[in-house]
Amino acid sequence: MTTRVEETKQNQKVLELEDTITALQKLNLQLQENALKKEQMLQVLIEGQKQLQMQNEELLKELKSGKYSGPRVMSEEQRSNRDKYVSAVWNLEGATDKLVCFLEQWMFADADITDKGNLIYLCCLLERGEEETAAVGLRKYYKERGAKFICDYLPLAWLANKIGLGGEVMKKAAFIFSKLEEERKKAVFTKCLKEKTFAIVGNSPDIIGSKLGKVIDSRDIVFRMNTYAVDNKYVEDTGHKINAFVNNSNFVSIDHNNFKKAMSFEWIYIPCDFWHMQLSQFTDVGKFINSYYDILANHDVKVTWLYPEESVELKKRLQIISPTSGMAIFYSIYKRMGYVEEDWFFGFSKEKRENGKWENPLKDPGDEEHRDVQLVNLDIFTENDECTTFYKNAPCYSRGHNLNREIELRNELFEEGKLR
């Protein structure tokens, strides 16, 4: 006869097995959805390639018949719209076949590409391993435009310096990018995470009343965010130790008092994907280059960042353009460790709010508030614009932060970690 204790154990095992089966079913559904999305994107690419082939055939007919009148000239509004569009898609998806095809259409068929479009195209070539071709294009750009905007794109600053273009600022920008790439390729931060205990402390007011300050301060590495405030009023909950700094280095953070202490930290994490980012869109380029050159060249501070593959994947999963700094480091740790545990994170909200925003007493006054969620309008071409076909089915991503969506993703990843 089975005793009650044995029966209880059996029931418990059954429940655990059911939970595991449910979690695996969810994971299976997610994999099926991802496969469907890939198939849809492949169809869009095939349609775009067919359209481009038709356009090339029509162009050839015009050339043979003598009716070709040369590349059409776009209005300033059309060129500006293309700039915004290309920049948004590049930031979201990286150097995809579709984007490169689009840019080549603009550059060679329309022959009216903007500086931004040109530089993004060269970034794409460099990322795809076509360094020699990118170098030829960059020399041509430099001959016509000088160093204008090149330092806005750190990979291009690195390439320009390598082929002998630019001056002191270019050298500094190139030095920064080479250090960032060196850290990525050697996985220095990942090794550090696996060798030490750590705490990532967010700025959510949910930490107030937790009495976790001593637990946080007992960890080897303690990260705090952007314009954090270590207030004696809450030190019992938040702790006070900090030897690592998550800093988005935007127009606000780079002038904040916390950034002035960055040279004293062991680590800085920048939640930015520098392969797919134009510096002037989020920060003062001169201050950024001079500050990080000083940090990396003259101080014993290690810098890591949101790697390009992490950035593209995270934005697709969230369906937003701008993850918070907290979500960026959360996802970086998930990718580099292979899992996440709740015990590593403090001050990250777990419950959704009605509008995805809340007041935060743990940030210094003057910190910019989270922007309202908006939609990027990707339908910025006219009906007869031949390039529309490449992205006519592109998804709309939310701009700004969507903290509720981030909570959903964090909870999903925590559940994954429990299945290890």
| Number of DSSP strand runs | 8
What is the multimeric organization of the chains shown? Answer: single chain
Summarize the amount of helix as a percent range.
Answer: 40-55%
Number of helices: 15
> Termini distance?
35 Å
The fraction of residues assigned to DSSP E strands is 5-15%
Mean pLDDT: 81
Strand order of the largest sheet: 5-4-3-2-1-6
Task: Assign the structural class, choosing from mainly alpha, mainly beta, alpha/beta, alpha+beta, or little secondary structure.
Answer: alpha/beta
CA-based gyration radius? 25 Å
Instruction: Tell me about the largest β-sheet.
Output: 6 strands, parallel
Instruction: Give the SSE string.
Output: HHHHHHHHEHEHEHEHEHHEEEH
- Which regions have little confidence, pLDDT < 50, spanning 5+ residues? 365-396
Q: Sum up the overall morphology in one term.
A: globular
Describe the structure.
The chain has 420 residues and is of the alpha/beta class. The protein has 15 helices and 8 strands. The chain has a 6-stranded parallel β-sheet with strand order 5-4-3-2-1-6. A two-stranded antiparallel ribbon has the order 7-8. α12 links the parallel β4 and β5. The longest helix has 62 residues. About 8% of the residues have low confidence.
